[in-house]
Amino acid sequence: MGLLSFRGGVHPPHFKEPTSRLKIEKASEPQTVTIPLSQHIGAPCEPLVKVGDTVKVGQKIGEAASFVSAPVHSSVSGKVKAVKQSLTAGGEALCVIIESDGLNTLHESVVSKGDIESLSGEEIKNIIKEAGIVGMGGAAFPTHVKLSPPPQNKIDTIILNGAECEPYLTADHRLMLESPEKIVYGLKAMMKVLDVKKGYIGIEDNKPDAIESVKEAAKNESTIEVVGLRTKYPQGAEKQLIYACTKREVPSGGLPMAVGVVVNNVGTAATIANAIKTGMPLIERICTVTGKGVKNPKNLLIKVGTSFKEIIDQCGGYSGNVGKIIMGGPMMGLAQHNDGIPAVKATSGILVFTPEEATLPKPNNCIKCGKCVEICPAFLQPLYISAYSLNNMYETAEKYNALDCIECGSCSFICPSKRPLLQSIRVAKREIIAKKRKQSS
Predict the structure, then answer these.
(1) Tag placement on the chain: N or C end, fewer CB within 10 Å?
(2) Would you say 366 is a known binding-site residue?
């Protein structure tokens, strides 16, 4: 099969060279962790512990408050010092602050759950739910919800996203090289949950070593196909990945399950494999720490709740003055106002930019060149949605299908006038969704 792709998209510089060949290192143990009870799309968790309690590694400390939610577990053993509102990557949230005892004592629940052959699909889904597994690509959508489609949506295909199309990030690349068997195992587990017979693992062709590594791990799996994707951003976005692999188009306002497909990240699959084989919930993840503002870029296996500063210090600290710290990639990631915030399940990258890198050019008037329309992978007209948003005309922005925006940032990247297209469209989406919630309540 030739390289697969989609219409639109852009080609930002990769900036992956500093870490793409660096093996994953296990980060040093944090002395204190701040674990938010909201690390996922959906309802925050209810705390299960109080100040003074002793907790163990893998112990559930936050219970999911609704179906669209995911439990939270302790990443260290030690004593609960506080349960309070604290600053996180997404704003203030209720957090459990734990002082580690350095012993890493495992909770009694952290035991092997069996294997795919001996477990039913429903049992596997429950393991995924109880392990607090969410999308590891950055969206942090609860995985058990994705694996619970309504009866009218018959799923026949699962696609794993191994594109890692965001510049700078190499966490998934290293995972595919170092633990490809976990990815295949996790995919097989999800296929059993949904009773599907076709699985794809899509990997961009700028990672030929990863393609070969995963192909080798899946060579005896007749129902799994490893496909090469043309290197282009945002190749890893759900709708674009579905079209590239299956040529199915998700309708406007629709979800992947509308065309019989579920999409997950390769990191999510590996985490599922780990939860089944060892019983360990999602308490750690691979994170790429890079950028000119950090001395020694690395791919680190970090524990949830570790502060950004502590992680950056393990990479030699800052290299000169800091212009900006971003959680995630430069296209879709979120800039942070300080380095005291904790890493969460969605912390795929910590980018440290120098002041020169972080300085944004001054926007000019739109010249109606149409480049943003030409490259938009969601077939939108970003210039108009942005203009209506900037003028507080959110109802009109909605008529231009603002909610279909996947927030990839391609429009902002390509705009010769450096308009704040993505930022203003995000505002419009937030206002539209807030209005809908108010009307339905």
Answers:
(1) C
(2) yes
